[in-house]
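Whiteboard transcription, Tuesday session. T.W. wrote the structure tokens on the left side:
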């Protein structure tokens, strides 16, 4: 069981790496670094030699080879492939131990991984369609959540906390739902290239309430040209997307502040409360830096990574409160 637990936690760390690398690929405009799938310009790796690049440019006339983008995209695919194999091992291992442990959750994760691979393919074949890009992000976070729950279930040291007076499980569920909505809004902002639609903080382009088009902002089927790269929505729609993310930030911050206060009143949950506080504070700072310094690549990538860590923290907290009871 110890070795299985170690592999499960390794898969959690690996998933975090895949999510962060995926964010880096997207934010560095390398999402179409390889116009085909699962290869890259017909190669298992990517065209690197002059002759290979020339041939690839003739075959894929709609997308000239950019080696610096192609290798990023393929590195993400390779790492996702390693994660897929790791999850498969977790399922096979659990199935062989089915008399002692359930293999249902590892099996579910395998199907989620398969669907996530399909979303990865559609991200490329549908030319960065915003709905698919956001769904791909949420699929990665769903994988992280399920693997985190699996790892917690195989970790004897992570037990239900003993006092129900301060934190009920419904409080955590509400926080988790709000966090997922906020992450989805962040993914929608990124997928529509709306991160810089509002310059400055807390105001947007010098005003508190700019002219916005919420109907177009939430349009999932807007027509596009050759692809969705660099976005297709106009200025008011992008500002609406950005402002929805900011409004979500206010709601999440207020709710999490209250939840953290409740967590810090219990000695058992204090570490999770403090880690949640630290991650929330860091995420706020990173978000402000993003809009005031024109989306630095490292900071924007970290913003995605911290969001994933916040989700991980909340899943562990949900597991800890799953059977909370009074003594």
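and on the right, the sequence the group agreed on:
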């Amino acid at each position: 069981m110890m070795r299985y637990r170690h592999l499960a936690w390794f898969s959690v760390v690996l998933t975090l790496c895949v999510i962060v690398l995926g964010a880096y690929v997207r934010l560095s405009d390398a999402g179409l670094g390889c116009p085909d799938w699962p290869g890259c310009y017909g190669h298992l790796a990517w065209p690197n030699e002059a002759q290979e690049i020339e041939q690839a440019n003739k075959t894929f006339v709609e997308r000239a080879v950019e080696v610096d983008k192609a290798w990023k995209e393929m590195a993400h695919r390779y790492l996702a492939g390693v994660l897929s194999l790791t999850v498969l091992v977790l399922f096979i291992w659990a199935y062989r131990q089915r008399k002692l442990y359930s293999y249902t959750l590892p099996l579910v994760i395998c199907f989620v991984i398969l669907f996530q691979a399909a979303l990865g393919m559609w991200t490329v074949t549908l030319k960065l369609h915003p709905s698919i890009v956001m769904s791909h992000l949420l699929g990665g976070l769903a994988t992280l959540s399920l693997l985190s729950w699996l790892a917690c279930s195989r970790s004897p040291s992570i037990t239900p906390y003993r006092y129900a007076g301060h934190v009920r499980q419904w409080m955590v569920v509400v926080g988790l739902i709000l966090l997922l909505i906020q992450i989805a809004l962040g993914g929608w902002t990124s997928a529509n290239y709306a991160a810089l639609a509002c310059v400055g903080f807390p105001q947007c382009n010098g005003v508190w309430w700019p002219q916005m088009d919420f109907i177009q902002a939430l349009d999932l089927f807007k027509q596009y040209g050759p692809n969705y790269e660099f976005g297709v929505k106009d200025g008011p729609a992008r500002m609406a997307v950005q402002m929805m993310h900011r409004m979500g930030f206010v709601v999440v911050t207020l709710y999490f502040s209250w939840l953290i206060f409740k967590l810090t009143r219990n000695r058992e949950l204090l570490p999770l409360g403090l880690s949640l506080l630290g991650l929330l504070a860091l995420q706020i700072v990173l978000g402000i830096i993003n809009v005031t310094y024109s989306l630095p690549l490292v900071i924007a990538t970290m913003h995605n990574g911290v969001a994933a860590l916040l989700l991980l923290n909340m899943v562990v907290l949900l597991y800890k409160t799953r059977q909370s009871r009074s003594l």
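Someone added at the bottom: The chain is about 65% helix and 0% strand.
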